[in-house]
Amino acid sequence: MRDTLSDIGSFVALGDSFTEGVGDPYTDGVAHPDSGYRGWADRFAERLAADRPGLRYANLAVRGRLLGQVAAEQVPRAVAMAPDLVSIAAGGNDLLRPRADPDALAQTFDAAVAQLRAVCREVLVFTGFDPGAFPLIRLIRGKVAVYNMHLRVIADRRDCRLVDLWSMRVLGDPREWSADRLHLGPDGHRRVALRTCEVMGVSTDADWREPLPPRLSPEAVRLQATAWFAARRLDLRWARGYAVPWVGRRLRGVSTGDGLAPKRSEMLPL
Questions:
Q1: Residue range of the domain that includes 251
Q2: What is the CATH number of the domain that holds 11?
Q3: pTM of the model
Q4: Do 160 and 117 form a contact (C-beta atoms < 8 A)?
């Protein structure tokens, strides 16, 4: 593996809500002037800065962004900054749409990576998660798998680092996700940051593979029937609270990220 840390003095993160950090709010009691979310990118930047004092970091990701928007709005800004390391994770919001074509998306992604690769020493690519653990969302599993295949080829051809989220089986546990089932919770973001550190050769004091505790106690096992009905009630609550509003936004052509600016629009020291 090529030496990376000695070459990195700046990092820019591109993408949507996953990279903005939605689902992982800051809980340190300090007022944060940005979106208030931490997320894997902030966590990784903090770890990287511990090894590289003075690291400059920007996060241009905005929730709800489609791949085309990331390519048109964020990629040119990152190219102008010419950071040593740039990450790009995008396309998930596109794949949630019925007519999404993973082959066409891959062409857009490849063009974006080519622009970044021309000016950045290291480009970090993320595959999509395996959505098989969740009802409804699992319907796009085939499209995500095809898209991921393209991303792996692009990363290999463009000599990029790859964080394979699909292979992180621990993220198949619903406890790693927030209530909306679309965004990782704090521990999920922590594990992705650790996986990113592993890919980049950054030292850590934890392992993203650490198993979660058993879900059910012996008493809970005896009450599985009750638990099943409780789970279905949660499904209905989720549908009312998240799925229906999401469909409504799609029909109206609006996004949760409309009008929002990136949380760290300039490369500044942490």
A1: 5-269
A2: 3.40.50.1110
A3: 0.84
A4: yes
